[in-house]
Amino acid sequence: MSRKTTFFIFCVIMLNVLRPFHCLPVSNQQAIQLDVTPGSGYGNLEISCKLDASLTSMEQTTSLTIYAIQPYSRQGQFDPLVTVDLWSLSPQLLGGISTSDVDVFGKIGIGGGTKSRLSFSWKTPRNTQASRYKCVANGLETNRNVVTVSVTSAASPSGSRPGLISTAANLGAVTQTILDGVANSTEQVRDRIQDVDTDIAALQQKVNALGEMATGQNSSIADLQERLSSFTQLYKFTYLMSNFDVSDVFRGRRYYVSKVVAPFNIQAADSLCSMLDGYLVEINSMDEFNFVHKFVKHVGGSGHFFTGGNDIEEEGVWRFWHSKKLVNFFNWKVSSQPDNAGGIEDCIEIRLSHKGFNDWVCNSKAKFVCEGHV
């Protein structure tokens, strides 16, 4: 009958560099379960990790990974063996392990309150040398805080038989046993020496696996970077569609109009534009003005649309906020403009009623326009 030692840990990692993350025990909530049981073959083990996200604060599970302390691991260090995540959806083998070593299955539940699972079984006894296994689940809360849930289990349930000797210390003990048995039987000594040779070969395989693991980790880092880039593009697209109306392409550029009418802050607006790989619009010709004017008129929702033009630093010297270049195109359609009414009108807006530029108080309620290269 198998023996399982299981611990449940619930960790909420606050994304705040000024505070350490906290790990809190989860009483009576078996959110994550790790089973280590004997397989059907001699010395084989089956390792299975299950997560019930409904017992955690996770809105979405992002990954499930099984680790192990192996003969070639640093003392007490868990090395990753297999993982499955939200982006790849299929399990990935790590640390030099291949499908010739294990059978593997895994899936990530989509959405909150769902279940995820990751399991594998060693195909040969020589691979059952890990002393402990650990399963770690990562996810996101509704407020986008990162949540980590983990469980650790003993790797050798009763009834399972270890395969080969796994450490250099044990190898030395076998060698001593061989020397002690010389007096009994020369034939027995020869047999045991052959066993030692086999163990040495197994250890060499582990050393080789370390090199393969390093290569695999480099590949995993590159893969994570690629996925991060994809996630960043997805985030930008989501942010874009939620907060801006988007124009067609005009001479290699697109224009973005904020959807909300709000008090204008030229520095904050330019920062928001930068999230789109853009900046507050810098209109340099009548053709460009006509395109932007037609676009903002079509979008509507306000009669005022701020640009990047301003004379905040020096009255009457108009510069673009982002590039700091002098404004070289003006379209003041009303003869009295710019009038700097009250001595506080320092920002250039497109005013639909003027069909041209107007200087206006910089913190007035309006929309603003960004531009970016395609």
From TrEMBL:
Signal sequence region: 1-23
GO annotation, cellular component aspect: extracellular space
Ranges where the C-type lectin domain occurs: 250-371
Subcellular localization: Secreted
Cross-referenced SUPFAM superfamilies: C-type lectin-like (SSF56436)
MF GO annotations: carbohydrate binding; growth factor activity
Superkingdom per UniProt: Eukaryota
Main location, first listed in the record: secreted
Keywords on record: Lectin, Secreted, Signal
One Pfam family per UniProt: Lectin_C
InterPro entries for this protein: C-type_lectin-like, C-type_lectin-like/link_sf, CLec_Tetranectin-domain, CTDL_fold
Presence of keyword Secreted: yes
Protein name, as recorded: Lectin C-type domain containing protein
